[in-house]
Amino acid sequence: MTNATVLHIDAFSTTPGKGNPAGVVLNGGQWTDKQMQEIARKVGFNETAFVLPTSKADFGIRYFTPGHENDLCGHATMGTIFALYREGKLTKQSFTIDTKAGVLPIQTREENGSLVITMQHAAPAFQAFSGSKKELAEVIGLKEEDLHDELPIVYGSTGIWTLIVPVKSINSFSSMIPHTEAFPEVLKEMPHMSIHPICFETRDEECMLHSRHFSSPFSGTIEDPVTGTASGVMGAYYKTYVEPELPLPATLIMEQGHEIDKDGKVYVHIEERDEQMAISISGTAVYVKDLTVDL
């Protein structure tokens, strides 16, 4: 039997026990794919990240849910960069990471005693949802009339896909109950997708959008407390469908996790580069403890 050391880092918060927990394995290169998947399953967080050597960037990172590998994960990236910083492995403030979503730039800075991490996302993409709004509402424990009347329901990606579902009122969020096993029957275009309800009422007046994130049934988890990649999609969605004339550059603050007492904030930066929208996110993180996983 051998042991893997996993760092428990909470992302998008500076308070242990808040934000989104991520597992980070700094010696990812010594584990096989099967072992990485097993480590992630035993840790049980929404994502566990593995740092690997790469010739394409400064660091390679792979991301595993308890059920499968993902191309990219925002909160686990934040957790990984914080873990590298804490271990003294960051020698510069700007560097790159090699992920299955591409090579992405990272910037860090210290602010008010915390490390602020900014990660570039992949180019935004959207695809229409053509399924039943009634059935979609039901699989997250709502009624069709709870959904927004005017804004579109779309699959969106800034590195990983999710379904953006605009909801009228923040009051609906506390009553949401995901019937995860039924997601594939409703999400016919992309049956492996997660569902990300959003609304424009917020608990904190500095925030622009409030959300929850319900995991794909194939991931082995139910809900992601504060979701970095989906927050990037939310920023792109806002600029595309809500306020197309939004002056750029712009930063939108997203809040998530209140309903499960894991609240945190994600700062989404929207710019125009080469006549295309560019999305990045910023956040903080905090070390919680070391975990030991037996293999």
CATH architectural category of the largest domain: Roll
Query: Regarding CATH, which class of the largest domain?
Result: Alpha Beta
Beta-strand portion reads 35-45%
Count of DSSP H/I helices: 5
Largest sheet: 17 strands, mixed
- Low-confidence blocks of residues: none
CATH-assigned homologous superfamily of the largest domain: Diaminopimelate Epimerase, Chain A, domain 1
Shape: globular
Describe this structure in words.
It is a single chain. The chain is α+β, with helices and mostly antiparallel strands and 295 residues long. 17% of the residues lie in helices and 37% in strands. The chain has two domains: 3-117 and 285-294, Diaminopimelate Epimerase, Chain A, domain 1; 125-282, Diaminopimelate Epimerase, Chain A, domain 1 (Roll). It has a 17-stranded mixed beta sheet that branches. A hairpin with an 8-residue loop joins strand 1 (3-11) and strand 2. It is globular, with a radius of gyration of 18 Å. The termini are close together.
Summarize the structure.
With 295 residues, this protein is an alpha+beta fold. It has helices at residues 33-43, 74-86, 133-139, 183-186, 228-242; strands at 3-11, 20-25, 47-52, 59-64, 69-70, 94-99, 102-111, 114-120, 125-128, 154-157, 161-166, 195-199, 209-211, 250-256, 264-273, 276-283, 285-294.
List the helices and strands and how they pair.
Blueprint (H helix, E strand, L loop, with lengths): L2 E9 L8 E6 L7 H11 L3 E6 L6 E6 L4 E2 L3 H13 L7 E6 L2 E10 L2 E7 L4 E4 L4 H7 L14 E4 L3 E6 L16 H4 L8 E5 L9 E3 L16 H15 L7 E7 L7 E10 L2 E8 L1 E10 L1
Parallel strand pairs: 2-3, 4-6, 11-12, 13-14
Antiparallel strand pairs: 1-2, 1-17, 3-4, 4-5, 6-7, 7-8, 8-16, 9-10, 10-11, 12-13, 14-15, 15-16
